[in-house]
Amino acid sequence: xxxxxxxxxxxxxxxxLDAIDYDYSHTAYYNPNTMRLPYVPDPPxxxxxxxxxxxxxxxxxxxxxxxxxxxxxxxHSFPVADGWNSFIGAIRxxxxxxTVIRELAICRVAVINGxxxxxx
Length: 120
Known about the structure:
The chain contains six helices and no strands. By secondary structure, it is mainly α. It has one domain.
């Protein structure tokens, strides 16, 4: 189980210079300016009440801001977008981690995965 103590210990070993010099060559399609999937229209069309509910929940979590490019990529599959929205919503709002530790963990995972949009 991941606790505040184990996360703090893990994060204390992170060398932030690794974030700057991270080698992205293992990422076959790496391009820091685009997603690998094209974006859906904003807002995406819905065809069922369930899709409309999922879209509304994603928009509510982002409010008052518009949907992010990540949302527009995930909304190719409404069930995937719904799962992602629930997962990230729980990480951002329902954990006992301090804001600083939580954001540091999110940024570290973003660096490891080459998700440079998290830094912008």
